[in-house]
Amino acid sequence: MARLHLFDLDGTLLHGSTAPVEISRQLGLEAEAVALDQAIGAGLIGPPEYAAEVYRLWAELTEAHVAVAFECAPWLTRIREVWAEIRKDGDYCAVVSLSPSFFVERLIDWGAHAAYGSRFPAVPFTEPMDPAGVLSAAAKVRIADLLCEQFGVGRDDCVAYGDSLSDKDLFGAVPISVAVNADSHLSGISTHSYMGRDLWEAYELVRHAR
């Protein structure tokens, strides 16, 4: 049976950072984005409030800013190699993130079968933000179920990789999980734990697990 590998983005594929911080850095607004990350990480605001605030911060955002943010972000090493190996084995890989879909979907070009993020208006913004398009921890599980149906696998065939509170629901829904540079929210609920900057090393923990 094929497996589906589900990857978080912020703090997982990105080491010590998030897509909104990397995007905001291009606008000189890194400190504001870090403060929002701390607020959502502490549960002081929810995903809709967070999305509304970063939408406001990004009034001057252009596609050029997004491209540079993506290119210069602190990615883990060997992401593309891991996804190529997953594909070679006949398995599937997807990214499911609360970050903006216009950033997350760029990972399709790196070899992900699918990439889901919160829906934002097209860049540069000329339309209002729709809160209904903002993802949550629970939405990650719903998307995982949709992907299972799409690829013909079940939850029991899934492996989740994540780092924080937004991954907790998904970790509880699948049998195998890897906490990658994770905070205390995933302590005791992950199958494996990895600290480092090489995705291949994290993948090796579950590569042969069935």
UniProtKB/TrEMBL annotation:
This protein's UniProt keywords: Hydrolase
Molecular function terms, GO-annotated: hydrolase activity
Domain of life: Bacteria
InterPro entries reported for this sequence: HAD-like_sf, HAD_sf
The protein's name in its UniProt record: Hydrolase
